[in-house]
Amino acid sequence: MLTYDFTVTPDRRGDGAEKWESMYREDPDLRNNSAIVPLSVADMEFKTPPAVAEALADLASHHVLGYTGPTREYVESVVGWQQRRHGWTPKPSWLVCTPGVVPAIALAVRALTKPGDGVIIQTPVYYPFRMMIEAAGRKVVENPLLRKDDRYVMDYADLERKASRKNVRMIVLCSPHNPVGRVWRRDELRKLADICLAHDVILVSDEIHDDLVMPGHSHVTLCNVLTPEERKRCVVCTAPSKTFNLAGVQCSNIFIPGKKLRRRFKAEADGLALGMLNAFAYTACRAAYDQSEEWLEQLIGVVWANHQLFVSFTREHFPGVQAFPLEGTYLQWADFSAWGMSAEELERFMKKEARLFLDEGTLFGEQGAGYERINLACATNVLQAALYRLLAAARVRNLPVV
Ligand SMILES: Cc1ncc(COP(=O)(O)O)c(C=O)c1O
Question: For residue 288, how many C-alpha atoms fall within 13 Å in the half-sphere facing its CB?
């Protein structure tokens, strides 16, 4: 068994990395200070899995980088991954490749609803959902999650009310959920599906975090709770991008079992010239799925250890701060409202005083005021340093810390 090194933080300065550049825009002096690692945007401070790096180098050196589509081997690899990891067998004909899951959501909204239609999202949620819906001239209909102590659950009574509105045509589900870290159980998904299908609301399930599931939990793909007939009303979005840190390669695999929906989706993609991926995407995805499973297992161990560190540090030093349990994703959701700061104050404190560059809770919806999302996909010593910076800054401010 190979052992991979998740203790080294790669130097991304000069790479145009969005997570780092957004920190430099806030504080240009940090370009000369490699001790501060941002913990915001959802990519990882880890190098590409070696098998992927080797496959891409081989492609660049020995092959022609012309217009490229998915080969039979590619489709087998993608379908095989879903079979092996998630226990379902999508038909190869259901697969549509798009250069990202956000583009797929934008396409689904545009292809399968009409201007002015309502699309449900479950806030707080990954903010591009709202952006894609609004940019397409559709209306966001919020079905906020309910916070039950340290867990979030769906509000089915509210969902029923919203799904039954005449103009509501679609729901975009986040499964596992970013930022609250829930891995939805089969019965939860079935209840949601019952309500949506009864009102002919199309189900778009963003399962980009499906492989990043913590010990004791398992991801249930939406297709596995639906009958073959019901599947014709769903779109399932998957990708190797979160799992293997390949977001910049822009490769997503979208499963659309219903012929009619698939035809409309593809026509929209073709009309916007989004029907073909870059040549690197297919090679990277295959090398990830076929040769990097052990890398993933070890990565999950690191994320889980980081989550446990976050929880135990918070319990010990930050009474009143709520660190939510991590069932899936590598994103820690935490409630700092006990510190009594406004959302703006909290952001300023984190950035200017603690030098922590996180994703502010309000990005994900108004329910996120007072919350922060912390990216755990980093070397453990990076997270440790961040927590100690936070403790020191909180002491200076006389916040209730121990
Ligand atoms: C729920 C969710 N969907 C989609 C994405 C991004 O998708 P892509 O980069 O493939 O467009 C992210 C990235 O953080 C995400 O968390």
Answer: 25
